[in-house]
Amino acid sequence: MSTRASRGGPEDASSSQDLPQPRSVVLALTADLVVVPRLEDVARSLGFEIEVIESAAQLGAQGEPPPRSVQLTEPLEGPDAALVRRLVADRPVLILVDTTATSLPWARWIQVLKTSAATRRIPILVFGPHVAEADLQRARQAGADLVLPRGAFLRDLPALIGRWAVQPDRGALGTACQGELSTKARHGVELINEGKYFEAHEVLEHAWMEAPAAEGTVYRALLQVAVAWLQIERKNPRGASKMMLRVREWLDPLPERCMGIDLAAVKRSVAELDASLQAGELPSYQISIPLPG
Question: Nearest 5°: CA angle at 208, between 204 and 214?
């Protein structure tokens, strides 16, 4: 699960040192030369990198999106799909949106990111001139987590970033990975290895819901893997492609080995499946996750 950004320290160094190093990037969608230095100074003082986005081309998301019959899910074609895939890969800890950035389709982007399961947990804070209430209202309707007039936003910026910028709790994840799989989780992995993906999904969902937060993150990653291969079994490449986007939120922060499982091999299998799907191929192979002991 995600918590307030962790700074790390001696108390969690031994348990989290093998976890992937997060970049802790704050993404700022603005071209305001007055605002940018303030954003950079505050973000860096709190230990975050900042990336300023002034054009859609910087995210590979330029152009008009094709029509979609179902809006409340991940787009798989066009610039909005490129946006989601880029943010899934980079996983910013926070997105800041300036309503005066008129060169960006920010309202559409907020709606896409907040209705896609792969990105909806990334916090989005919006700011703009208080006299442009219509734009602030558009941001609220699109699903932004918090919308503020620019003055209040800049005044409270350190507290806002400290509260909203989130990333995995590395200490808790490291401790969880030193433990053992629960009985239900182990059974769920056994079902995956037997090719019983629906049953594995059911069992792993119970394991995740019954586990402490960090341990549950591991089980949720395995659950998403089971669902991805269930979509392959059902010959549903679009469903599998969406799961490839969703699984990374839970799988990427985990170390190469966790609870005795070779997660590096699992990550390679997921990457291979994603590459096949992007190439228009529907693989027939099954995933195998060796169990400890």
Answer: 135
For residue 159, the tally of other CB atoms under 10 A from its CB is 10
d(CA 68, CA 279): 21
Burial classification of residue 248, based on how many CB atoms lie within 10 Å of its CB (0-12 exposed, 13-18 middle, 19 or more buried): buried
pLDDT in tens, 60-81: 999 999 987 777 789 999 999 9
Q: Which H or E run contains 167?
A: strand 166-168
Quote the pLDDT of residue 18.
67
Residue 27 β-bridge partners: 51, 95
**Radius of gyration (C-alpha) of the chain in whole angstroms:** 20
Q: List, in order of start, the domains of the chain with CATH numbers.
A: 25-164 (3.40.50.2300), 171-278 (1.10.3450.10)
Of 100, 91, 161, give the one whose Cα is nearest residue 132.
100
> Please, which residues bridge with residue 28 across strands?
52, 96
3-state secondary structure of 244: helix
CB atoms within 10 A of CB 284: 8
Contact 187, 219 (CB under 8 A): no
Q: Which two tokens stand for residue 201?
A: 């999904």
pTM exceeds 0.85 for this model: yes
The angle at the Cα of 196, spanning 190 to 202, to the nearest 5 degrees, equals: 85
